[in-house]
Amino acid sequence: MQWYTMGVDLGSTTAKAAIVNSDGELVASAVVQMGAVSRQAVGVAIDQVLRDAGLDSADIARTISTGYGRRLVPSSDKTFTEITCHARGAAALSPGVRLVIDIGGQDSKTIAVDEEGLVDRFALNDRCASGTGRFFDVLCRALEVDLGEVVDLALQGTENLEVSSMCATFAETEVISLLAQGADPADISASVHRSVAARTLGLVAQVGKAFPAVMTGGVAKNRALVQFLSASLGEQLVVLDDPQIAGALGAALIARDEHRGNLSLEVADIDADRQLVAQRSGGARDCTGCDGTLGHDHSAHGNGDRVPVILNMDRLAVPGPSGR
Q1: For position 135, what pLDDT does the model report?
Q2: For residue range 204-227, what is the model confidence (pLDDT) as tens digits?
Q3: Alpha helices (runs of H) in the chain, residue ranges in sequence order
Q4: Mind telling me which NCBIfam families this protein's record contains (predicted)?
Q5: Taking Cα atoms as reference points, which of 2, 4, 51, 48 lies closest to residue 26?
Q6: Can you say how many angstroms the Cα of residue 261 is from the centroid of all Cα atoms in its chain?
Q7: How, if at all, do strands 26-32 and 119-125 pair?
Q8: Radius of gyration of the chain (CA)
Q9: Contacts of 317 (CB under 8 A, 6+ apart)
Q10: What letter does residue 284 receive in the DSSP assignment?
Q11: Which of 17, 49, 64, 182 is the most exposed place for a label (fewest CB within 10 A)?
Q12: Three-class SS of residue 242?
């Protein structure tokens, strides 16, 4: 008899939901954008994915939530970090993946995945909006264009301008200054994208390059950044058809595994959760002492602080009676 599980990923700017069947096949998915960490968006995403799957809530055997607002999902049976869920979802969407680069609305993460598809280590930057979706929103506002136009402009740019500010707070002022100097908007956009690629490469360095590499999150839909980051990595990034659903899909698959009693990543995920909470609750984004430039270690902080790296996260995974 067929049964279903659901994953819900409440991020900083979007809510995503995915349903898989008992065979682990994706049945339906939904992506809804309705503001910052929106509970309303969660409800809309869940209603939409159930409707698209031709199911109702009673048909869902288990639901796991993830993302920034994972504890705000009322129908969730358990929560898992986006680290665990993005890795699982990316491995399902691109078998054999060894590196996941997740860039969302407010933070960015790199996740090294081993040959078994488990998280080996990860690095997180969420104390600065440099290189995130918010950063590109600032660029759009400064150039007075929409995101699609910013991407097109970046692909047309030929000159590599010096963009010293990687801070979302200062970047708009710098872009306006470059425009006042007569710089071509296409060159500005291209240069900002190159700088973001360099910033992301620094985050990758914290966990180590590995291929195939997959990019997840909303920013993965930015064709220009994918191109510049691929060039920086020296190898083409794998582009998923729908990179935004990786976290929700991973959560749905973990829910399926738990419902079958096949695998528990709970111990490992608790460790990751402690690390995320410690870093995120260590204070709001504090720009004190930051000069807004790209530090020598490719950190967005002028003081040279390195991005925290969490090692061997899934080595504490506890197999169920049926193995993985």
Answers
A1: 80
A2: 999 999 999 999 998 999 999 999
A3: 39-53, 82-93, 133-143, 147-156, 168-180, 185-207, 223-233, 246-260, 266-280
A4: CoA_E_activ
A5: 4
A6: 28
A7: unpaired
A8: 20
A9: 118, 263, 264, 265, 267, 268
A10: S
A11: 182
A12: coil
Which residue is associated with the tokens 């339906």? 28
CA geometry: angle at 265 spanning 262 and 268, to 5°? 155
Residue 84 and residue 310: Cα distance in Å, rounded? 12
CB 138 within 8 A of CB 196: no
CA-nearest of 106, 97, 53 to 252 is 53
Please state the φ and ψ torsions of residue 9, each to the nearest 5 degrees: -115, 105
Q: Give residue-wise pLDDT tens across range 86-132.
A: 999 999 999 999 999 998 877 889 999 988 778 999 998 855 556 67
Structure tokens at 96: 């054999």
Contact 104, 133 (CB under 8 A): yes
The per-residue pLDDT of the chain, averaged, comes to 83
Q: Is 313 exposed, middle or buried (0-12, 13-18, 19+ CB in 10 A)?
A: buried
What pLDDT is attached to residue 243? 96
The domains of the chain, with CATH numbers, are 4-129+200-319 (3.30.420.40)
Tokens of 266: 């709970």
The tokens describing 165, both together, are 């500010």
Q: Which amino acid is at 240?
A: L
Q: How far apart are CA 135 and CA 181, in angstroms?
A: 22
Q: CA-CA distance, 180 to 230, in Å (whole number)?
A: 31
Q: How far apart are CA 129 and CA 22, in angstroms?
A: 38
Amino acid sitting at position 86: H
Residues in the chain: 324
* Encoded tokens for 6: 């659901």
Yes or no: say if 277 and 271 are a contact pair by the CB < 8 Å rule. no
Q: Which two tokens stand for residue 158?
A: 């030929």
Left, alpha or beta for 155 (phi > 0: left; psi -120 to 50: alpha)? alpha
